[in-house]
Design a protein that fits this description.
Layout (H helix, E strand, L loop, with lengths): L5 E6 L6 E6 L7 E3 L1 H5 L7 H23 L6 E13 L2 E14 L5 H14 L1 H5 L3 E8 L2
Parallel strand pairs: 5-6
Antiparallel strand pairs: 1-2, 2-3, 4-5
Helix pairs in contact: 2-3
Pfam families: OsmC
InterPro entries: KH_dom-like_a/b (IPR015946), OsmC/Ohr_fam (IPR003718), OsmC/Ohrsf (IPR036102), OsmC_Ohr_Peroxiredoxin (IPR052707), Peroxiredoxin_OsmC (IPR019904)
GO molecular function, one term: peroxidase activity
Length: 142
């Protein structure tokens, strides 16, 4: 079992409040977040950006390991992820996580690549965590 931790602090309430996020590794150390960073494009991070980063990283690693397991020894994977936050009644909900993968894998067929990427999308731990629509656009560079 592996565990990781992060913490958040919020001073003040509502739109006027200011928050900070810190991770165990120190990659984020009192990184600012709040209403402005979430909805107004102000500097800092927000929960959806962190989810997008986690999903892109997890899916890319899962794809890499699946390709290695299928006998491929070299390649490059680049994934972007867009997480959508929509109004949901009186609150909000993450409704979609859209993965876009571009890969260069010598000697792989389009069909094998598509199958491995789809399996990685379904099997990565962050995909399993999310309760939203997950889409994948996967393209293979020639």
């Amino acid at each position: 079992m592996t565990t990781n931790t992060a913490s958040a602090r919020y001073e003040g309430l509502g739109k006027e409040g200011k928050g900070s996020i810190t991770t165990r590794s120190g990659v984020l150390s009192a990184q600012p977040y709040g209403f402005g960073t979430r909805f107004e494009g102000k500097p800092g991070t927000n929960p959806e950006e962190l989810i997008a980063a986690a999903h892109a990283a997890c899916f890319t690693m899962a794809t890499s390991f699946a390709l290695a397991g299928a006998g491929h020894a070299d390649g490059t994977l680049e994934t972007s992820c867009t997480v959508t936050l929509d109004k949901d009644g009186a609150g909000f909900a993450v409704t979609r996580s859209a993965l876009t993968l571009t890969a260069s894998i010598p000697g792989i067929s389009q069909d094998e690549f598509a199958r491995i990427a789809a399996e990685a999308k379904a099997g990565c731990p962050i995909s399993k965590l999310l309760n939203c629509e997950i889409t994948l656009e996967a393209s293979l560079d020639a």
